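Why should sequence recovery work at all? Because a backbone constrains its sequence more than one might expect. Tight turns favour small or flexible residues, buried strands favour hydrophobic ones, and helices have their own preferences. The token representation captures these environments compactly. In the example below, the structure is given first.
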């Protein structure tokens, strides 16, 4: 694993305060996250750098995402989520509200919501065997486009316009993104591939 993984690379405008997060949305996203955590698709490496995150569309292109440095927690509280309110891919900037900073993968989530209005949920996980198995067999970003950069965001944008629901992150070993009309759909796509390796 590269040393810069798990760290925020974009310019972050963080408004550190609680935001309105309905109990229904919280229970839904936390239940899905717990399932993925138990399967090792979200978690932390031995050096305690976390990996994996998920989000749901809030309104327009704003979205609620699991916070930075939360990968090693089994269960999250509302304070571990962040509301991304604005972003600029070309300026590599993200604005968020919450008691936790938005995930280091927020830009990847943002570009999917921006490019595909039918998407209401995005999941990003790490799994070496899945990544090895599906690299360049499923839609895959180019290796030169590294994690957390505008380059990979633009690669993801081009792939997310299609309806496959899964992207292998070529320049981010182990990184896999799924997305769908709901968290249930995004998780189902992920687990269908996960269960076949």
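From this structural description, the recovered sequence reads:
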């Amino acid at each position: 694993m590269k040393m810069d993984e798990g760290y925020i690379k974009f310019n972050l405008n963080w408004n550190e305060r609680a935001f309105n997060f309905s109990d229904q949305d919280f229970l839904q996203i936390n239940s899905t996250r717990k399932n993925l955590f138990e399967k090792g698709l979200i978690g932390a490496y031995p050096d305690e750098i976390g990996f994996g995150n998920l989000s749901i569309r809030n309104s327009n292109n704003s979205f609620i995402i699991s916070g930075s440095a939360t990968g090693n927690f089994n269960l999250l509280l509302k304070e571990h989520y962040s509301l991304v309110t604005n972003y600029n891919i070309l300026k590599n900037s993200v604005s968020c509200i919450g008691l936790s900073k938005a995930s280091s993968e927020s830009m990847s989530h943002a570009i999917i919501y921006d490019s595909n209005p039918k998407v209401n949920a995005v999941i990003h996980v790490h799994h070496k065997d899945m990544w090895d198995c599906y690299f360049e067999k499923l839609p895959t970003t180019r290796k030169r486009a590294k994690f957390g950069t505008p380059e990979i965001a633009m690669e993801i944008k081009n792939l997310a316009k299609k309806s496959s629901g899964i992207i292998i992150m070529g320049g981010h070993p182990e990184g896999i993104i799924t997305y769908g009309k709901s968290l249930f759909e995004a998780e189902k796509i992920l687990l269908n591939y996960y269960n076949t390796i």
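A few observations help interpret the result. The radius of gyration is 15 Å.
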